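Students often ask why we bother encoding 3D structure as a string. The short answer is that it lets us treat folding as translation between two languages. Here is a chain of 488 residues written in the first language.
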Amino acid sequence: MGTFWLVASILLPIVGGLCSMTLHHTNTRRWFASVLLVIELFIVAILVPQYTGQLVLLKLTGGIRFVLQVDGLGRFFSPLICMIWFAVAVFAYEYMNHEGHKERFIGFYLMTLGTLMGICFSGNLVTLYMFYEAMTLMSVPLVLHIGTPKAFHAAYRYLGFSVAGAGLGLLGQFVLQNYCTTDLFTPGGVLDKAAVAEHRTLLFVVFVVMAIGFGCKAGMFPLHGWLPVAHPVAPAPASAVLSGLITKMGIVALLRVVYYLYGWEFLMDSWAQKSILVLSLLTIILGSSLAMREDTLKKRLAYSTISQVSYVIFGLMLFHPIALAGALLQVLFHAIAKNTLFMATGSIIYKTHLTQVSQMRGVGKSCGITMWCFTISSLSLIGIPATGGFVSKWYLTQGALHGIEKTWAWVGVGVLMLSALLTAGYLLPIVVDAFFPGKNFDVSALKKQEDTWLMWITLCLLTAMTVIWGVMPTLLNHWVYPIIQSLF
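And here it is in the second language, the structure alphabet:
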């Protein structure tokens, strides 16, 4: 029965997405999608974790297999994705009223979820690559939804970067199959020590290539260019999941390569490890600096994602249990905060048609609930205590100080501190202008334009999660600790 639920977790959203496109009555489509997403969350949170074996879907010549398996990493990512995916869907029911083609959006939105579940439960690199590419293809229509020339350009750019990055990741499969004891993802790695003894340099080169390739989806330099182009043209719900969740699939792939194929002990203190650490730190500063200069609000948030997701890459490349815990918590809290920020931004655009940072004066007076959610999520990204972002960044800092040589540790901590200041610099002025527009601002001219309940309740629930888990992070131990224990 466990194999049935494992396959169902992938097929249910895909088949459901296809079916939803045939439903033209808005309320029917809403209820159908909502029920499907609730069932999907129940399957991945309750039923799938009870299955512990491997399921071989298909065998090809040359020993190539498509395999599904359930482990701690899949149990961590899949409920998180489904939970936020449902929240964003509820928000989209109202928001997409002014975008058009709602049935098409919901259809591809659901099908994309199925591919993400496939990535979470992939048992080897071939299977992961298959679902990784499927995710890109299913999410492209979300980017080009409005159908303008600018949207098509953004979609082509997203598609080109993603396919190129995944191709670099697949390149490793052709090399690694000669040096691995099994094709299955295994905690601690699967490299044959005797076979790799004389080819360490080659394997380090292959690792760097794979890390850059999968880092594309995570927005890591130098393949980060799709993010600031795709986000401004995509509808706010699409921008939310692209930034908050789809970027994390690059993190899943990188985690699999580092901890389940190579093994962190093989990479420890190598030039390959240091190269990716340098790229992650460079991306953190680059993203924050570019966000400071950007006036388009959604584009500023896109550059913020480039910076914040590289916190995760930095943490997982430190090869220390505390740092890895920080990286996993950063995945969680960034996903929640960035989805909230993009939905709040979409809500403001929906109600006021304002898109620029310089136009945000007084918005807090007309969209109070929305801006309070925006504010708390911004504080989480900065790393202010009593928010989830503080917890993850604290663990990352402690992991850096304990995990690598002191010079690298202080450089890493310095970059994290500088990025926090830059994050405050590009987010807090938006909040200040929204709530304190100045003496000369005509507040009486503003029209109070709060969201409909479907929109604001979603924002409030995600914001509450940021605070509750930020104050009581031990509630997440049962998600994070099994992964840490299996790898260290």
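Translate back mentally: The chain has a mean pLDDT of 89. Keep this in mind for the problem set.
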